[in-house]
Amino acid sequence: MYSRSPKNTSEIIWTKHAINKMRQYNLSASRLKKLLKNPQHQEIGIVPKTIALMQSAETKRPTEIWLMYQPLGQVKKIITAWRYPGISSKKTIRDFIKNNDI
After folding, report:
1. Which three-class secondary structure state does DSSP give residue 81?
2. CA dihedral of 7, 8, 10, 15, whole degrees rounded to 10
3. From the centroid of its chain, how far is CA 35?
4. Band of residue 101 on the pLDDT scale cut at 50, 70, 90
5. Residue 17 · residue 80 · CB < 8 Å
6. Are 5 and 14 in contact (CB under 8 A)?
7. Cβ count within 10 A of residue 71
């Protein structure tokens, strides 16, 4: 279980919302950093000036881990992260974000 809050660095800033979502979906900071460096899919975020990244998770059931961040020069501000059940399409993921208040 996730117990520590990630610390802000010169490269990454974590929002309180992202930290709460990490706890909710049982995601670690190292897992999200791995996603930042090696995404399987990238698209423009639903929030202006953001980027959404996706990487499939290796579990018994197919799931995807999504991360939304805002680039601020050399720094990346992590807005939110979530675990999507199943395999998503672009339309499906936008509906999921709107319906689950992410």
Report:
1. strand
2. 150
3. 8
4. low
5. yes
6. yes
7. 11
Hunting for tokens 């802000």 — which residue is that? 8
From CA 35, how far away is CA 39, in angstroms rounded? Answer: 5
In tens, the pLDDT along 55-68 reads 988 778 889 999 99
Contact call for residues 18 and 80 (beta carbons, < 8 A):
yes
Q: Which CATH architecture has domain 12-99?
A: Roll (3.10)
Record the tokens describing residue 7, joined without a space.
């610390």
Pairing of strands 63-72, 41-44: unpaired
Residue 52 tokens, joined: 């959404």
SS3 99: helix
HSE-up of residue 19 (Cα within 13 Å, Cβ side): 11
Helix (H) / strand (E) element for 63: namely strand 63-72
